[in-house]
Amino acid sequence: MTPADFSAIRLTAELATLTTLLLLLVGTPIAWWLARTESRWKGPVAAVVALPLVLPPTVLGFYLLVTMGPHGPVGRLTSALGLGVLPFTFPGLVVASVLYSMPFVVQPVQNAFEAIGARPFEVAATLRAGPLDTFFSVAVPLARRGFVSAAILGFAHTVGEFGVVLMMGGNIPGVTRVVSVAIYDHVEASEYAPAHALAGGMVLFSFVVMLAFHWVSASPRRRAG
Amino acid sequence: MSGRTALAAQPPDRLAGRFRLAYPSGFALDVELDVPARGVVALFGASGSGKTTLLRCLAGLERARGGFLSVAGEVWQDEARGQFVPTFRRPLGYVFQEASLFPHLSVRRNVDYGRRRVAPAARRVALEQAIGLLGIGSLLDRMPGGLSGGERQRVAIARALAASPRLLLMDEPLSGLDARRKGEILPYLERLHGELEIPLVYVSHQADEVAALADHLVLLEEGRVAASGPLTELLTRLDLPLARGDGAAAVIEATVAAHDEFYHLTYLDFPAGRVSIPREDLGVGARRRLRVLARDVSITLAPQTGTSILNVLPARVTGLVEERPGQVTVGLDAAGTALLARITAKSVALLDLREGKSVFAQIKGMALLD
To answer: What's the pLDDT score for residue B5?
Structure first.
């Protein structure tokens, strides 16, 4: 493997870590709202969050490219704020990854919140805990397993993305070239040895991640009091 | 009570509420409540009568449009004035039917959960007191998952108490437990009654629990209050279902007067006289409740000699109701204490029993309730 390959691995790890942290921050309130709301907007919002599950990554990448490009609404906004435009930058990749991996974080957390049921929150209310207090002292600890699952899936899914990255980030070494794109490049150039090294590494990584996910989700839940 | 009267000061010793709630299922709650804000108030009724819904209204877990609630002079809900104190701002304790302990917290941290959220100046029950009263000192470092049903419910009660509530609400806290576990918890509830001056609203469909604990009874039927009054009065009212059926019983409050070591008897005094029960290990002067089943009371016109029955009290007939053909329930007043007697219609005719007639009640047996 070349130094460029190691830089791709480091970039991929940075992208996935940052994306996962941002997703836990952004996705948790969305999951909480989806788990608790009786609003008629629940269905549409849930569907939008789930869209990346079924959309071809090129479609998502295409629209992100258009809206964030110099002539798109988001692009104009970021330009006006002095941030430049996001496509073909690392922050652009992060934004795209957050949207692309959103359902993999929101859904496990939402399921975990829903599994708690209404009772523990009622109990907390009868014990003087306000809504925010209840969220941190009851909801988050009881949904702990859901958060771990969400983090594993969000991280792994971001590592595995290809289409959105290619559309949004292109292939700039050290800036936007992640492992999946690096493998593609090697194969294009008929460099099968480094392609094998990276691809094999991805298989091993994915196996370990899914094994960890299995352990987290399959270990027995503590009995409810 | 209308929403308008809320403008006036609320009585400091009453718990008054009005709730109307309709559910899509067809069940509707339509209740006006005015009960003492002290002692134990039992909400009693069949399942589906609205007991739990009413309790949840008191806690603010259900919100009735147009509802009103004042507790010991403090208004917690007055929708006519747009006022609704959310549950977490109400100084209450709630014990659910299932203990509902937080599974991620140890027993100690469960019990402490509410207490640490109460301002130190407002804490009136010490953590040690709640732990001691419920006898859970040895469980503090355990996790809820490893506790028995009875232990969990005791922890739940201690947790509610430790938050220094000014009103305790309990929703059939014993219903999920077998007779042995029940017997394990009931004494603790009675201690609460005796040692803490916190009014308790207690939901139950078990007549024996109610007879043991309640001071005031609210009888609910299909979402409405069928009757509300002191326990001893309601239990013996012939127009209410409580005085019907096999379990019909009166409750008398008596004071332990003396023990008869030779015959192994304990004597108890109450206004109508002295009664005896098989020897119980009770201190002289202690106040105890006795349950007298209607079917254990018979009536004579003159005090009998040559009978094995020791407990004979003068009484006056206050009413008669034929419960089913041939079976009559007689209401009796023994120096202010109400009793019930279940006798045959033939006996009623032979003794010529009428309202106001003076008779003697023979009590075949009675049970200590605590």
So the answer is: 47
Other C-beta atoms closer than 10 Å to the C-beta of B21 total 21
Q: Are residues B44 and B165 in the same domain?
A: yes
Low-confidence ranges of chain B (pLDDT < 50): 1-6
Give A222's pLDDT tier (boundaries 50, 70, 90).
Answer: very low
Q: How far apart are CA A127 and CA A144, in angstroms?
A: 22
Q: In which domain, by residue range, is B363 found?
A: 249-367
Residue A137 burial (CB < 10 Å; 0-12/13-18/19+)?
buried
Residue A224 inside a domain? The answer is no
Q: How many domains is chain A built from?
A: 1
CATH number of the CATH domain containing B268: 2.40.50.100
- Which 8-state DSSP code applies to residue B65? T
Q: Do A119 and B100 touch (CB under 8 A)?
A: yes
CATH, residue A64:
1.10.3720.10
Going across the sheet that includes B167-171, the strands are: B92-95, B167-171, B200-204, B40-44, B216-221, B224-230
Outline where chain A has alpha helix (H).
3-36, 42-54, 57-68, 73-80, 90-116, 119-126, 131-134, 140-142, 144-159, 163-169, 179-188, 192-218
Could B103 and A223 be called an inter-chain contact, meaning their C-beta atoms sit closer than 8 Å? yes
Give pLDDT, residue A219.
62
Please indicate if any CB of chain B lies within 8 Å of the CB of A126: yes
Q: Which of A16, A15, A8 is nearest to A174 (CA)?
A: A8
Among all residues of chain A, which has the CA nearest to that of B143? Answer: A225
Q: Name every chain B residue with its beta carbon within 8 A of the beta carbon of A130.
A: 88
Mean of all residue pLDDT scores within chain A: 92
The answer to whether A181 and A88 are in contact (CB under 8 A) is no
Mark whether B266 and B162 lie in a shared domain. Answer: no
